[in-house]
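To the wet lab folks,

You asked to see what we're planning to order before we commit. Fair enough. Below is the target structure as tokens, and below that is the sequence we designed to fit it. If anything looks off to you, flag it before the synthesis order goes out.
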């Protein structure tokens, strides 16, 4: 059985990108859970949808935080893949016109995949840098 080799967590792009993802995702999830009603009214999105997404985002943020603390190539790749899935799902929601959000809701729904895509790109670059440096 091969031992799991973790990527060093010193200063660098990968741990910073993972930590930023965890913080922003966690804050977003907490806001959706705590303020689902008012945010739903502002964005013209069902509060129940925001609360479910909030719970999922909080769980994901905890997972990303754990990966940031002890990054392993496979775990980082899973975070990147989940971020890519979020981007794709957000685009599908926009295109499918699942609901008719307010202008603020449409802008927010469009900003999310852009932000999450940026996290994924930074994480991928950071992961590649660890590989180029010969780190596991």
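Sequence we intend to order:
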């Amino acid at each position: 059985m091969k031992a799991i080799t973790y990527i060093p967590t010193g200063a660098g792009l990968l741990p910073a990108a993972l930590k930023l993802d965890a913080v922003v995702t966690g804050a977003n999830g907490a806001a959706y859970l705590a303020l689902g009603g008012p945010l739903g009214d502002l964005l013209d999105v069902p509060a129940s949808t925001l609360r479910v997404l909030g719970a999922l985002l909080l769980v994901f943020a905890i997972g990303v935080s754990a990966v940031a603390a002890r990054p392993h190539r496979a775990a980082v790749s899973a975070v990147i893949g989940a971020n890519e899935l979020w981007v794709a799902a957000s685009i599908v929601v926009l295109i499918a016109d699942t609901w008719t959000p307010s202008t603020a809701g449409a802008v927010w729904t469009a900003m999310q995949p852009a932000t999450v895509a940026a996290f994924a790109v930074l994480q991928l670059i950071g992961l590649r840098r660890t590989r180029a440096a010969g780190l596991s």
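Structural context that might help your review: The radius of gyration is 16 Å. Helices lie at 13-34, 36-43, 47-69, 73-96, 103-132.

Thanks,
Computational group
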